[in-house]
Amino acid sequence: xxxxxILIWTVITFIVLAAGAYVLLFGLQDNAIDVTALNxxxxxxxxNMDGDVSEALSQTAYxxxxxxxxxxxxxxxxxxxxxxxxxxxxxQSGGSVISFDGGTFLLTSNLKNNMRDIRKTAYGYIVxxxxxxxxxxxxxxxxxxxxxxxxxxxxxxxARNIAGGNLDVPxxxxxxxxxxxxxxxxxxxxxxLKQARESERAATNSKKELVAxxxxxxxxxxxxxKALTELLEVTVQDENQRKKLETIDQKTEQIxxxxxxxxxxxxxxxxxxxxxxxxxxxLVLIPMLRTADYQNRIESCAVAEAMIxxxxxxxQQVFDNIFGNAYxxxxxxxxxxxxxxxxxxxxxxxxxxxxxxxxxxxxxxQKFYRGENAAGKSGSGLGLYMCDYFMKEMGGHLKVANQSxxxxxxxxxxxx
Length: 416
What we know:
- With 416 residues, the protein is α+β, with helices and mostly antiparallel strands.
- It has three domains: 35-108, no CATH class; 177-273, Helix Hairpins, CATH 1.10.287; 275-414, 2-Layer Sandwich (Heat Shock Protein 90).
- It contains ten helices and eleven strands.
- The chain has helices at residues 3-26, 35-47, 53-58, 87-92, 111-163, 180-235, 239-269, 285-292, 312-329, 383-393; strands at residues 65-70, 75-78, 96-100, 103-108, 278-281, 298-301, 307-310, 334-341, 344-351, 397-403, 406-414.
- The strands form three sheets. A five-stranded mixed sheet has the order 6-8-9-11-10, covered by helices on one side. It has a four-stranded antiparallel sheet with strand order 2-1-4-3.
- The chain is rod-shaped, with a radius of gyration of 52 Å.
- It starts with a helix and ends with a strand.
């Protein structure tokens, strides 16, 4: 509970106790005079005025102070030294004057005033004690707040920042509290964790930059190998050698695709992967699809006419990855169809290789994920991940599904 709430509750408790004491002391009724005893005293005084009034009235202990005056106003009996001897004093004290044959009965009622004074004094003492207790509790709460509660709250906030990965907020140190040494140790731990994290981040970025540089450098010799292979395919007459060259060309294409994926994924992690979106005619996708289909597996290719947003280079990479996967895992003919709806051009690339397990479909666009049928086949698990990333950066999206006995990749390009 917050210290402010505790203080508020102590104030409320003090007010309630003070009000309760007031009701208890001043809400009680004063002890009423016994009317029967009063009538008996007056009757006794009246009957004995001609005799010994003192002896008759002194035989009974009445619970109130009174005096008896004769007809001339002289006091003939007084049962208490505090009893008023004049009508004025009796009335002033809150008592009564009762006349009877042969005299006057003066009832003194100073008990009410005495009890009121006593109650006032008692109430003052009670309120004073409650006030001292409240001040003591308040002072103790302030002490606890400064020495224990506040340091604990600071350490709790500090632990929350550490758990959330925020290592830039230091823990304020106050050696006057009970946890001064602990706070200093915790802050030293924070500084050490921050330094370790920065070192780890620098090492990770260095590795990523090395991978990106190597991936980029590999592209040049691969391009040379591919160019020489294509040249030899044209000049070589022997059919057996031509098939070997075609195999080299295909393997070179696979290595190039893997290298591009690795390079793109590394640059994406370094926040240096650039996607430039521009307005394009959808028919431009047809030659890009044909380029990606270097094994000529496309049987039908229908692309609806529309203006779409895309990056031509990144779109070509998407097509290259999808066709590479189709060659590797299906090895069948490929159909390309399209549909314009809901502000998107939906392009479906479908093979007839039997599809993939339904449980694996949601995982296929995750980084480094490879399905059960990937065993023994080359790949890094980055192809569909990069395709999904590129499509999102271009304002579209990618979906995989099983359709018509095959595996379908549905690319949704945003209409301009």
